[in-house]
Design goal:
- The protein is mostly beta strands.
- The protein is about 10% helix and about 45% strand.
- The chain has helices at about 1-30, 45-50, 55, 65-70, 255-260, 345-350, and strands spanning about 55-60, 60-65, 95-105, 120-135, 140-150, 160-175, 180-185, 230-240, 240-250, 270, 275-280, 285, 290-300, 315-325, 330-345, 360-375, 380-390, 405-415, 435-445, 450, 465-474.
- It has a 16-stranded antiparallel barrel. A two-stranded antiparallel sheet has the order 1-2.
Length: about 475
Amino acid sequence: MKLKQSLVCVGAIALRAVGTFLAMSALLLGLSVVDSRPAQAVSSFARQTGLGCGACHTAFPQLTPFGRRFKLSGYTLQAPGTKPLGSPDWVPPVSAMAIVGGTHTAVPQDPAGSPLKPNDNITLQQASLFYAGAITEHIGAFVQTTYAGPAFGPPAASQFMWDNLDVRYAKSVNIGSIPVIYGVSVNNSPTVQDAWNTTPAWGYPFLASNLANTPAAKTMIDNGFAAHVLGATGYVFINDMLLLEAGGYGTLQSNVQSALGAVPGDGPATSGAIPYFRIAFEPHWGNHYLEIGAFGLSANVTPFGALAGTGLDQFRDLGLDSQYQYMGDGYAVTLRSTYLHEQQLLNASVANGFAANPTNTLNTFRAQAELMVGNGPKTIVTAGYFNTWGSADPVLYAGNRTFSPNSDGWTFEIAFMPFGKTIPAPAAWPWANAKIGAQYVFYNKFNGASINFDGMGTNARDNNTLFLYLWASF
């Protein structure tokens, strides 16, 4: 009976969500009748370069080798005849996107304090505006502001916030016969400036429901500083193969974070600078591109609610990543893996009763295989595995039945991008693009609990999630 009810719920949300998505897709397709130009990527980048989405993306936001070099070159590549800043005919590089999502979780959630139903919600999950493109010959920017849709629990302090920020200066030179790109990135999250889809800011899953439970334990480098810091890194990309990067960040003052829509208490309060490094090596032959790399940071943090004079916690994070990408004729195969390791020295947390162990470790491993097929409309199929594990701590993880942070599971996703050579983008906005997809997240462990753990009602698979979405870019 429980299985039958679950299938009925899944079917109901699928029908409602698919109906919504088809209606929106039909509107976009109906606008496309007059125009024959191919769909393109983030519209302001597309207008600037005159290139279709396939030049920079296998499927947005996943980058191709050309897309990675466009980013490292400071977003400054322009098509001939592009009007520069200050000219009478200059068009600001502005674009937008919206994500509509439908979410079904295996077990209903508590909607108290929110306008949501316990399950099967369809919402405008996110809407963003971008300033994305060249500012001068050597300066470019990717600036995102975002509306975040409703979530379970009390209303958010602000649903409007600054999001990803990456402003660059970049220049290309030759040292002897070796080409070198060098530059500086001012950004607001370690790894948001990275050009590979293996680091946390742009890693898989590229999109997930904001109405589903997710594992609680994350390393600091796993987007823990996003929108709470500001920093700068300098980099060189040598011989189209080797990236070396280093820099640092500082936490923004609480009143500045609040003014930008970020909630200060949601991010760590750091003391001093946060140094960051990145190295990536990408040899390539023919259509084969293989990347291996490392990245990391170090942060001293004052725990939220800690008493004055009780010291600091220290977090030392190291990431290892790899990616293989084959760019075929009408298809692309991408394999990605990421390993994150965090060493925690918790003197302040122990002194304030927030942790039992003076030292802990936390680890995360993620791997995905992705196939993109299509020269015009595209179909993208992805399967991924994720695993987080670390030290058991009866105080730090008191809410977990095994006092451990352990979670693992699988993600399966299929998506379709309709606009391309055979189905043109809307005539009213020929740079538009869209992705229609279905994602299923399946847990083996969740916050320390496994399937039917101890017979006391804790079940990792209660958090399994079906997420249907329409992701549109204009």
